[in-house]
Amino acid sequence: MRVLGFGDNIVDRFVDRGVDYPGGNAVNVAVYARRLGAQAEYLGVFGDDELGGFLRASIEAAGVATARSVVRRGSRGSPPCGSSTATASSSAGTAAE
After folding, report:
1. Residues near 76 by Cβ (< 8 Å), separated by ≥ 6?
2. What is the pTM of this model?
3. pLDDT value at position 79?
4. How many whole angstroms from its chain centre is CA 11?
5. How many CA atoms, within 13 angstroms, populate the side-chain half-sphere of residue 18?
6. Is residue 22 within a helix (H) or strand (E), and if so which, with residue range?
7. Of 39, 37, 40, 66, which is closest to residue 54 (Cα–Cα)?
8. DSSP string, 58-70
9. N or C: which end of the chain has fewer CB within 10 A?
10. In this structure, are strands 45-47 and 70-72 parallel, antiparallel, or unpaired?
């Protein structure tokens, strides 16, 4: 079986623990499908910053191909249009950890 996770990616940052977890719905689908034995790939956009590199490396370390994804300038891989930051203080990690 072949699975393509297409769409979002995100880093869940737990400031109180100093831990970042890679994830996002499309990433999690691809990673869990790979864990279940499917040939999986993720298609999305990564920022060219440190967290974008962290996300891509984490996804690839889980055995999910990212060769067709693109890297764009900026922390969100998109032109600046304001800023938003979300942090959490507790919860379980996500699939690509």
Report:
1. 47
2. 0.76
3. 53
4. 6
5. 0
6. strand 19-23
7. 66
8. HHHHTT-B-TT-E
9. N
10. parallel
Residue found under tokens 């999986």? 40
Cα angle 3-92-31, degrees, rounded to a multiple of 5: 15
Which tens digits make up the pLDDT trace of 9-35?
Answer: 999 999 999 999 999 999 999 999 999
Three-state SS for 84?
A: coil
CB-side exposure of 20: number of CA atoms within 13 Å? 12
CA–CA gap between residue 28 and residue 40 (Å, rounded): 11
Residue 33 to residue 35: CA distance in whole angstroms = 5
Looking at residue 86, its amino acid is A
Q: Give 49-61 pLDDT, tens digit per residue.
A: 999 999 999 999 9
Letter for the amino acid at 61?
Answer: A
